[in-house]
Amino acid sequence: HQAESDPIQESNVDSTKIVKPIDFPKITYSVVEIRDKKHREELMHEYRDTEDNYLKNKIFCLLNRKERRFMKVGDKVLVPDSIADNVLPYSIFPKFYEEAKDIPKIIIVSNKYQCYACYENGVLVRFAAANTGKEKTQTYPGRYALVWKQIERRSSLDSTWVMPYTFNFHKYAGSAFHQFDMPGYAASHSCVRQFKDDAKWLYYWGEMAKKDEKGQLAHLTGTPVLIIDVFDYTNRRSGPWVNFRSNQDFFIELPKNPMEYEEALIPISQIPAVVRNGLPNKKRYMYAEDTLRARGVIREGVSITQSIDFNKRRRDKEALKRKQAEEKLKQETIQNQID
Predict the structure, then answer these.
(1) Strands, E, within the chain: which ranges?
(2) pLDDT by residue (tens digit) across 217-231?
């Protein structure tokens, strides 16, 4: 195991480098602090979510990795000096990914910068904001692949979670791309949250896993997904994107051998109990937490949250209430007979 490549080490090196700027016009950014309620109303009007203002609102939310409704008085937001005719000029991913030129489609997710990129034969075709897993339920770095999709998914762990345009990328952990609240930082239960238009686009663009000779979805055969780094949980309500002053300040350098990237390590505690016995290579899940702690992905002193089946918990609670009610009725009936 020690000989396996370490995506965390690779990504830390990559994320500090600057690559050659892509050939988009320079767009500068200003940091604006929302001073008071009136100022917030003015900003929200300028970047209103209407059909005729779609792109301006889209770019504003993308740069800040959050929905407008989560922008509060006192917050600092990034504002561009100009609005391009699409979002690609605002990408922190390079326009061309040389090492992916022979890969039909690939998705690269940055936890650190809360965004992702989609490439077709190495050409950038989509740049989007993402809110990934919070510290106790991280979206762990490594290689994944798209598996299955559902246009409106209710979580198998909690049916109150409705997730439009779900595209699963880990069969057993349940991790998926989908639309959900975007507060502007890593906040999910290991999934990659997106704005609705991005979720819809990815839903139709991505390729599901292929079926094997038994008709089962084969491992790592869908569109490859690489998660390349770790969010800074010491500053969990914001991120380094607020320090950018132009669209040419920084570009992520991507993995040199994308299809050889180490498969993601997922702690066994993050796998729902009902599917643990069916895990292939179960030992890998058993030692994953120790390895992730050794690499610093899970910080010292942080305990990760066990996968919880909230649906089962509710069913058990309702069953207990029924049992208690039946017992109470039984006791009342006995008491009435005595009386």
Answers:
(1) 29-33, 76-80, 106-110, 115-120, 123-129, 142-145, 149-154, 162-168, 176-179, 192-194, 224-227
(2) 999 999 999 999 999
Q: Are 57 and 49 in contact (CB under 8 A)?
A: yes
Tokens standing for residue 118: 């989609």
Rounded Cα gap, residues 153 and 145, in angstroms: 19
Q: What separation in angstroms does the CA of 162 have from each of 32, 152, 153, 217?
A: 34, 7, 6, 24
What lies within 8 Å, CB to CB, of 6 at 6+ separation is: 262, 295
Q: Each residue of 327-338: b (16+ CB within 10 Å) or e?
A: eeeeeeeeeeee
CA atoms within 13 A on the CB side of 334: 6
Is the distance from CB of 148 to CB of 217 less than 8 angstroms? yes
Strands 106-110 and 115-120, how do they pair?
A: antiparallel
Eight-state DSSP code of residue 28: B
Find all residues with CB under 8 Å of 286, minimum gap 6, and list them.
268
Residue 300 makes CB contacts below 8 A (sequence gap 6+) with 293
pLDDT tens readout for residues 330-339: 787 777 777 6
How many CB atoms are closer than 10 A to CB 39?
13
Contact of 132 with 113, CB cutoff 8 Å = no
Amino acid at 273: A
